[in-house]
Specification:
By secondary structure, the protein is α+β, with helices and mostly antiparallel strands. It has 2 domains: 36 residues, no CATH class; 36 residues, no CATH class.
Length: 86
């Protein structure tokens, strides 16, 4: 991927530029990608950062990720997630 967009009057405009022509099956993926980022807006005034919004903790924890992946909301964890549970 060469470019993903540009600023236009302080508003981010998504524009995907591919290094080669897409195969037919990739066009469906491009459509899905466009739908995913459609509601995402960038702000020149804010600093770039990653933010974890899972659980009540501030910041990322491996424990909350394992609990989420292990299906804590679905009841008993199985397999490797039961072993990894703290």
């Amino acid at each position: 991927m060469a470019e993903v967009g540009a600023w236009n009057n302080n508003v981010w405009v998504w524009k995907f530029g591919w290094r080669r022509n897409l195969f037919e099956w990739e066009k469906n993926l491009e459509c899905l990608l466009s739908q995913e980022v459609h509601g995402v807006s960038l702000n020149l005034e804010k600093e770039d950062r990653w933010e974890w919004k899972e659980g009540e903790e501030v910041g990322y924890s491996v424990k909350t990720r394992y609990l989420r992946l292990g299906g804590a909301s679905r009841g008993e964890r199985e397999g490797v997630y039961k072993v990894l549970e703290v």
